[in-house]
Amino acid sequence: MCIRRHDDRGQRRRAVAGWCDGGLRFRKGVDVSVTDRASPEVVELWDGERIRGWQDYHLAGVADLISAVNLSQALLALVGSGMLDRLRQDGPCPRDALLDGLNPEVGAGFLRYLSVCGVLEEFGGAYRLTRRGTMLTSDIALARLGFYLEAYGPVTRAMTDLLTGSARYGVDVTRAPAALGRHSGTVSTVSYLPIVRRAMAGRSAARLIDLGCGTGSLLIQLCQADPELTGVGLDIAPEAIAAARETADRAGVGDRARFAVADAFDPATWPDGCDGAEVICGIGVLHEHFRDGDGRVVELLDRYADILTGDRVLLIGEPEVRYDNRENDSDFFLVHVLTAQGIPRDRQGWLAVFGRTRLQCGRLYTSAVAGPRTCFYELTPEKE
C-alpha cells in the first residue's frame, strides 16, 4: 500500500498597501488569514487490490446496470405522477406547476436526478424534456419499459422462488394482465397496424375479428382509419374488455368496434356478429400453447379451419425468437420461461406446424429493419 500526503493547511499572508485579490483593500501591515483555521492533512491511500476490485466493477458494467434500473423506474414514475403530461405541453413547465399536488421535497430531488441523467433541462426555474428525454418517453419506449417492468415485474421479482420451486407461476405469481394488455396494445398499434391494414386491403375486407384484443387499440385505430370497417374484439379478461369499450366510445367508433368477453380459442363462445368477418386476426396468442406440445397448437388451428368458409382468412402474428440480444430477444425469451409459456418459434418452425394442420400459408408478412421481429402468416383452408 502506498501513502501520499497533501499539505493543504491554511497559510497566512501579510498584505501590503494597495488592492488585494477580489478587490478587497487591506491596510498596510495587517495580517489576513486565507482561512480561519488550518485545513486537515489529506492522506491518500493507494491500495492496488482495492482499486482492481472497483475497476472490475466498472468494467463489468455493474454501475450502468444500476443506473439503468433506477432510470427505468423513474421514467415510469414520471408517467404515473402526471408530470410527463405537464412536460409535454408547449414550452418549459415551471417547477411549482410541475410539482403541483406532489411531495415538494421528493419532487425537487427527483427533478434534479432527471436533469443529471440528461432527461430534463432546467432554465430559470422551469423544466423541459431534452432530446434524449423526448426519445425515452416516446409511446413505444414507455410501452416496452412497461411491458417488462409493470406487466412482468411481479414475475421477474419472484425469479429466485420460481427457480427454486418455492413458487409456481399461475398459483403464487402472475403477471399483471391490465398492464400487459395496455403496453402490448401500444406495441401492436405502432408496429403491426400497417401489416394488418395491408393484409386486409389485399382482400378488400370490411369486417375483422381481433383475437386476444386486450384493450382494443388495434381494432379501434383500424376503425378510425377506415370508416367502412367494423369489427369485434375478443378477450378472456373482463377488465381489458371494459377498457376497450370505454376507449372505443371515447374515440367515436364504439358503434363499429365492439368488444366481448370470450375465449379466443373456442369459437362456440363467440358472440353474435362474428359471422361474416373476412379476416380473423390474432397477434401473439398462439405460441403460449406450445407449453402443452405442438399437438395443442395444431388442434387450435384446425378449430379455426372449420370456420374459415368462403374467402375468410386467418392472420396470425407471432414473434420470432432467435436467442440473441437484438430487440430484447433474450429478455422476451426469459419472461416466457418464467411464466411457463410455450416458447415462440422462428418462421420455419411455424411453417412446419402449419403443415400438420388443415390450413395452408399463402403469404407471410414481416417488417423490415426495425421493431419486434414478428411474422404474420396468412392462412386459408387447404384446397381439397
TrEMBL record:
CDD domains: AdoMet_MTases (cd02440). Residues 204-286 form the Methyltransferase domain. One of its GO terms (biological process) is methylation. Keywords: Methyltransferase, Transferase. One of its GO terms (molecular function) is methyltransferase activity. It holds the Pfam family Methyltransf_31. It comes from the Bacteria. SUPFAM superfamilies: S-adenosyl-L-methionine-dependent methyltransferases (SSF53335). Gene3D superfamilies: Vaccinia Virus protein VP39 (3.40.50.150). This is Methyltransferase domain-containing protein.
